[in-house]
Amino acid sequence: MLVAMGSGAARAADMGAKDEPIKLVMAEWTGQHVTTHIVGTLLQRMGYKIEYVTAGGYPQFTGLADGTLDVTLEIWMNNVGDIFPKVLKEGKVEDIGQLGLETKEGWVYPKYMTDVCPGLPDWTALTKPGCVQALTSPDTFPNGRLLDYPADWGSRSAQIIKDNNLPLTTVPGGSEGAMVAELESAVAAKKPLLMMFWAPHYVFAEADMGWVAMPPCKSQDNDHCINPPEVHKVVWSGFKDKWPAAYEFLKAFREDAATQQQMILAIDRKGQDIDTVVNAWIDQHQAVWQPWVQEATR
After folding, report:
1. pLDDT tens-digit profile of 155-201?
2. Which terminus of the chain has a lower count of CB atoms within 10 Å, N or C?
3. What pTM value is reported for the model?
4. Listed residue (67, 18, 64, 69) closest to 44, CA to CA
5. Distance between CA atoms of 196 and 107, rounded to whole angstroms?
6. Cα 118 to chain centroid, rounded
């Protein structure tokens, strides 16, 4: 469940510009939508106007820097590109701390693939001719295919493949939904598939998946290495002055993986409406979120 902060976590603050909408970034994956809708709903209950704005993984930082966007709630810190460090250093955005998600990221595969890639999860299994042949597609021949993140998410997979001279070629997915659909199709047909993915995600509750024990990192920086990332909350630099109470609430807000994954499952697999799922959680867990609101507004 979401984790309540202690009584001293946030100070009381003025509401600020209640008549101007707080623009919340909506990214490309359901977990981020869940987080953002929880926050948006609670901000509305505090008396704020909110607006959900779709923005790409890297372009959002330009919007946050110039104030056309106000909040983004799920920044995976190992995949922020070049713009975020620049605007953070310039003071145009503010990192307000970790969200609280327990995360994992890397290359995954359906476990039945050990039949054609014996030695998995060790990465060296991906270099064996039989495994490479099983993963080959017309657009990657003679290399094996690795289904990567959508192009505008960014990824380190191609660089890691190059660093370790692996017989693999990355192919970007179209979206989270397209990647999941390909995984589900592969599992149904027992077809080999290697893909870049992340947790928390409901697919791990539905398919028996393994994580590749990744090859050595050429260096520990994010361009050459995949490590469990921290997930942070980021706001436009003028947010604190414009909406002081909302700022204190956002700093206190936390979400854990178990809570998010249950909601993702309800939305993506059970077909439930995101607002219905989020409102049900909020109504049932007042003891979790109420301290954040009270400390920010009392």
Report:
1. 899 999 999 999 999 999 999 999 999 999 999 999 999 999 998 88
2. C
3. 0.76
4. 18
5. 4
6. 31
Handedness of CA 282, 286, 290, 291 (dihedral sign): negative
Q: What is the rounded CA–CA span in Å between residue 14 and residue 264?
A: 34
Report the C-alpha gap between 298 and 295 in whole angstroms.
Answer: 6
Q: What is the CA radius of gyration of the chain?
A: 21
Q: What is the pLDDT of residues 9-35, one digit of tens each?
A: 434 579 999 999 999 999 988 999 999
How far is CA 118 from each of CA 47, 113, 123, 196, rounded to the nearest angstrom? 57, 8, 11, 20
pLDDT in tens, 103-156: 899 999 999 999 999 999 999 999 999 999 999 999 999 999 999 999 888 889
What CA–CA distance (Å, rounded) separates 197 from 172?
12
Measuring CA to CA, which residue among 73, 105, 68 is closest to residue 249? Answer: 73
Q: Which helix (H) or strand (E) holds 201?
A: none
- Angstrom distance (rounded) from CA 257 to CA 266: 14
